[in-house]
Design a protein that fits this description.
heterotrimer; A alpha/beta (303); B mainly alpha (438); C mainly alpha (316); B: 438 residues; mainly alpha; 2 domains; two-stranded antiparallel ribbon; 17 helices; 6 strands; C: 316 residues; two-stranded antiparallel sheet; 72% helix; globular
């Protein structure tokens, strides 16, 4: 079976480099993520994973390299043609390194979450989800005019948005907290709410930055279930950074390993787990027979 | 025994506080420098006042330490006060009846001050407060130069009314739009700035505007300001005595208060319209985006919100209200000069928003009534003059108290700007209960 | 001021030289105030909006003590001024200590604009407190040390350097050297730098953060009091609204030099002093404040890390 990230990628990163002054955080990294896959980006602390994420989502402008993304097919010839032009996208293929963060979310439909949760803490859970549907709602509000007048088209759009938000709250088990400030929710609920908020953008690619960080075993199990369900619905591919190997190994189809800003391995979870370079990077030891390493990469690490 | 210890520790605390207050007050309260008849400065001792301050500090600190047990502070409980349902309509009726009631009770002459100072002036500040509330309270963009937009509105009317011959109905939106345009222009270069830097730049821009107004004599007449521009009329009927005036047409004896009552209702209607627009906008994507921006700008960008547009609309709409208020100010005063648009004016409007608890429309209105109305009321109390001497002007203390109130507000309710917030959209109780039941 | 007026009819080079001297004098004063802004910003990331008013207050304290000493105790002008400056440093430091305690301490870690709003409130309070207690009018004292050294003569116009200008620049220089020593070599300086980097970590490692911040305010106020006293000496006049504009200009100096950087604050102060005097001379004295405010806006918009500051990377 050949891999989807080669046959039908949704995202292709070519020779991406990001420097901050003298520090090279991401160094000539290339990889692809397959359509419909869960792709995990792993690596030790400081490997450049979050920086890479910030380049993908437009929060940083990469120093050099290309990030091609498509909701249709990523056709090589079309990517080259687009690269030669000065345009950001041709309607289907997007060159993310040319786009601003909000354009990436709005036009290319890449949604993301943050390592340290970034909800709107003073606003209710429902409002958080409503804000994520701003694109559809602003169109219906027609420069706020239809909204100010309370025209029926606007009311219908608002009701549809509330319905979608309610469905997501239901799905993450937070419907009873819909009217409470997001900041008052327990930590695990906030993580799930942030994912639900990103999903309200109806993204083609969902980028999650350490979604299981700080969750207990039961919560991270639930999270894995949720992510797998999202993937299985087929509308959204997932790219995640994760430290919790039990989550990575359970749900990912493809693992990319970074160390010191460089890609050191790329493949199916089973292959990566046995890669000596990965093992060395993870524990800083040369001896791949070390049982602890095996345990970490198998996802049974004592935490 | 324990009681004695408590007293002695409270005494120590109080003595320390007294010493600090004595140090703070030593030359600045104990002496006042005033020029004598040779125009050289001479010192006037005010030791009794100084000792009163020390005594007050001692008593207060002692009481605090004694009753609250040393320096331990009781946690400040934040209690949400929900305004009852009837309050809005009741306030509205009171506002509509107010000028007529005052005229009825006091007669047209004595009512002048009540309609003008306590009516029109306060309502203009309410309008300003609601406008700035959009920028500061909702979008979380600290605008320290709000008075500049107010000035743009006032000068726009004062300059355009004689130049174009247009009436105030036509010029009201023009003043608002011009101010909004300025808000846009000032907002544009500072989009990328962090909160505190943004605040300082708005201050710098506002000061530049004021200096230009002060020195561009050819157009603005400098410090002297502009006056003699056309004032209010009642749909074409001027408020003048004689057969062509409003009073004659309405079959009333002429009274100066007619014009003010008309202005009062004009300001009231505009303020209510502004309120309605703000309240509605909060439920729309734009208004929610403002609040989201205040909460977390980076998250906004990750959700595809164009923060530049959101900031610009917040600036421009806040400025629009200020421009309209400026136009009304020019109509009320009959003259405009740069001294009305200093930083302390911006600070006063900011204080109205901050003390009003940000997001809350009613809070802002109450704060405006309190800050503007109370100091005017203090001026009325002749009793104070007999205590503090003839030269005593309580208005001097207004800004002093405004400053203290801002400090107190930030310290006692640091998240005061959002803590009483009601969600703009709620899932009905039935829908929530459905799940808890199942 | 007088030299400035005479300058209008003088030779071009002499005028320029004279304005350079005046600009450096003014710039020294701005630099001293700017240090207060930059230190507080460095340590708790707050724009201490009330600092300009603390400066104004210090000038009033110096004025009152100066009058007290000369009129009631009959001291000579020179010793009286030195005592007044010292007393003003101590009392202003006490004021700023109290201000930090009452208005800012509890707001560390509050939402980001709370300290700034509180500082604006404090600024409003201080300006009006002085207006209420001392009256709104100008307070002027007779000129002191106004003998001058004539640097160039014979031309159309004499370039002069007054004794008090020498004093101002010298005092500023000496204080800055002493201050630099404190920040670089003493435990206090180390604690300050630790709090700048990471207040929570510093606290865990046994640095008393509250004490360090309080001392920062105290030092900032003492330097502002020196500036206030020298301002009174140089211009001979002060009024209760004098805190705002010099405060904003000194803040401009701090931003221009790179906020958080001490040498930057001094450099920025000198630049602002020069820009202001030269602008006033060659363009328009009515619009000289516009120059400073424009520099502020332009610096913040186009190079927010200033000349000597570290760039600020947005944390996502």
């Amino acid at each position: 079976m050949s891999a989807r990230w080669i046959d039908d990628p949704i995202l292709r990163v070519d020779h991406l480099t990001m420097r901050f002054g003298g520090l090279t955080a991401v160094n000539d990294v290339s990889f692809s993520a397959g359509r419909g896959d869960v792709t995990a980006l792993i690596g030790p602390n400081g490997a450049g994973k979050t920086t890479l994420f910030n380049c993908l989502t437009g929060f940083y402008k990469p120093t050099s390299g290309r990030i091609a993304f498509s909701s249709g097919r990523l056709d090589d010839a079309r990517i080259e043609k687009l690269t030669r032009s000065a345009r950001k996208h041709d309607g289907e293929i997007f060159l993310l390194e040319r786009m601003a963060d909000h354009e990436i979310a709005r036009q290319a439909r890449l949604a993301r979450t943050f390592q340290n949760i970034r909800l709107f803490p003073g606003m209710s859970a429902l409002e958080n989800l409503m804000i994520a549907q701003g694109r559809e709602l602003s169109r219906a509000a027609f420069f706020s005019i239809a909204g100010l007048l309370g025209l029926p088209a606007w009311r219908r759009a608002e009701q549809a948005a509330v319905d979608q938000a309610t469905a997501w709250l239901e799905r993450i088990g937070l419907r009873h907290r819909a009217n409470d400030p997001a900041g008052s929710l327990p930590y695990g609920d906030q993580r799930r709410l942030e994912i639900a908020r990103a999903m309200c953008l109806r993204p083609t690619l969902l980028c999650l930055d350490e979604p299981a960080a700080g969750l207990n075993a039961a919560e991270s199990h639930g999270l894995a279930e949720l992510l797998r369900a999202i993937r299985d619905e087929g509308e959204t591919s997932i790219l995640l950074i994760e430290h919790d190997m039990s989550v990575v190994m359970r749900i990912s189809d493809h693992v990319v390993v970074l160390d010191y800003g460089q890609k050191i391995a790329d493949g199916a979870p089973r292959e990566v787990r046995e890669d000596p370079a990965v093992i060395a990077a993870y524990l800083g030891v040369e001896d791949p027979d070390e049982p602890a390493v095996e345990a970490v990469l198998a996802g049974n690490a004592p935490t | 025994m324990a009681r004695l210890e408590k007293i002695s520790s409270a005494l120590r605390e109080a003595a320390l506080a007294t010493l600090i207050v004595a140090g703070l007050g030593f030359p600045i309260i104990a002496y006042r420098a005033e020029p004598d008849f040779n125009n050289a400065l001479a010192l006037l001792g005010r030791w009794p006042l100084f000792f009163q301050f020390c005594l007050a500090a001692f008593a207060l600190r002692f009481a605090l330490a004694f009753w609250r047990g040393g320096a331990a502070k009781a946690p400040i409980r934040e209690r949400l006060w929900r305004s009852p349902r009837w309050l809005g309509p009741a306030a509205l009726i009171a506002l509509v009846v107010y000028p007529l009631a005052v005229v009825g009770l006091l007669g047209p002459q004595a009512a002048l001050k009540w309609v003008d100072t306590y009516g029109v002036q306060i309502l203009i500040y309410v309008l300003l407060g609601w406008g700035l509330n959009i920028t500061v309270g909702l979008a979380g963009l600290l605008d320290l130069g709000y008075a500049a937009f107010y000035a743009v509105g006032a000068y726009a009317y004062a300059l355009l009314a004689p130049a174009t011959g247009l009436g105030f109905w036509a010029l009201l939106p023009v003043c608002g739009l011009l101010a909004a345009f300025w808000g846009f222009c000032i907002g544009f270069p500072i989009l990328r700035l962090r909160g505190d830097y943004l605040a300082i730049v708005t201050l710098a821009f506002a000061e530049i505007v004021r200096i230009v107004l002060t020195n561009w004599d050819v157009v603005t007449h400098g410090e002297a300001g502009l006056f003699g521009f056309p004032g209010l009329n009642f749909f074409g009927l001027p408020f003048i005595p004689g057969p062509r005036g409003f009073a004659a047409h309405a079959g009333l004896p002429f009274a100066g208060v007619h014009k003010l009552i008309f202005l009062y209702y004009l300001v009231l209607i505009l303020a209510l319209a502004a309120n309605l627009v703000s309240l509605r906008l909060r439920r729309l994507p734009l208004g929610r985006a403002w609040e989201a921006l205040r909460e977390d700008e980076i998250a906004c960008r990750a959700l595809g919100l164009d923060t530049a547009n959101i900031k610009l609309t917040a600036f421009a709409l806040g400025a629009f209200f200020a421009g309209v208020a400026g136009c009304l100010f020019a109509l009320r005063q009959g003259f405009v000069s740069p001294s009305a648009f200093t930083f302390s004016e911006s600070a006063l409007i900011l204080a109205i928003v901050v003390l009003g608890g940000g997001g809350s429309q009613l809070g802002v209105a109450v704060a405006a009534v309190f800050l503007v109305g109370a100091s005017e009321a203090l001026r009325e109390i002749t009793f104070l003059k007999s205590v503090f001497g003839e030269g005593f002007d309580p208005a001097q203390y207004r800004m002093l108290l405004v400053g203290l109130a801002m400090v107190a507000m930030m310290n006692l309710r640091p998240r005061g700007l959002v803590s009483t917030r009601e969600p703009t959209i709620k899932l009905p109780a039935g829908k929530i209960a459905a799940e808890t039941a199942s | 001021m007088l030299a400035f007026r005479r300058g209008e009819s003088g030779g071009a080079m002499e005028v320029f030289l004279q304005q350079l001297i005046n600009g450096v004098t003014l710039g020294s004063i701005y630099g001293l105030i700017a240090i207060g802004y930059t230190m507080v910003y460095g340590i708790i990331g707050m724009v201490n909006f009330a600092h300009g008013d603390v400066f104004m207050l210090s000038a009033f304290i110096a004025l009152l003590i100066l009058l007290l000493l000369t009129q009631m105790l009959g001291l000579g002008a020179a010793p009286a001024f030195i005592v007044a400056m010292g007393a003003s440093m101590a009392l202003t430091a006490l004021w700023n200590y109290a201000i930090e305690r009452v208005a800012y301490r509890r707001l560390r870690g509050s939402f980001r604009l709370a300290p700034l709003i509180s500082a604006i409130g404090m600024s409003t309070f201080l300006a009006n407190f002085v207006t209420v207690t001392q009256g709104p009018n100008n307070k002027s004292i007779p000129p002191m040390w106004d003998q001058v050294i004539t640097l160039t003569s014979g031309g159309a116009y004499d370039v002069t350097l007054s004794y008090r200008q020498i004093l101002i620049v010298a005092v500023t220089g000496v204080l800055l050297a002493a201050f630099w020593f404190v920040v670089q070599k003493t435990p206090l300086g180390r604690a300050q730098r630790a709090c700048e980097q990471d207040a929570k970590m510093a606290a865990l490692l046994g640095v008393d953060v509250n004490r360090t911040v309080a001392l920062t305010f105290v030092i900032g106020a003492a330097l502002a009091a020196v500036a206030g006293s020298l301002y009174l000496l140089q211009y001979g006049v002060v009024k209760s609204t004098d805190g705002f504009v010099p405060g904003v200009k000194a803040f401009t100096a701090a931003v221009l030099g790179g906020i958080g950087s001490l040498p930057g604050a001094v450099l920025g102060g000198l630049l602002i002093g020069l820009i202001e005097t030269l602008w006033g001379q060659y363009f328009s004295s009515d619009y000289k404040d516009v120059a400073a405010f424009s520099v502020l806006a332009v610096t913040l918009i186009f190079m927010p890390s200033g000349l000597m500051g570290r760039p600020d990377v947005e944390k996502v």
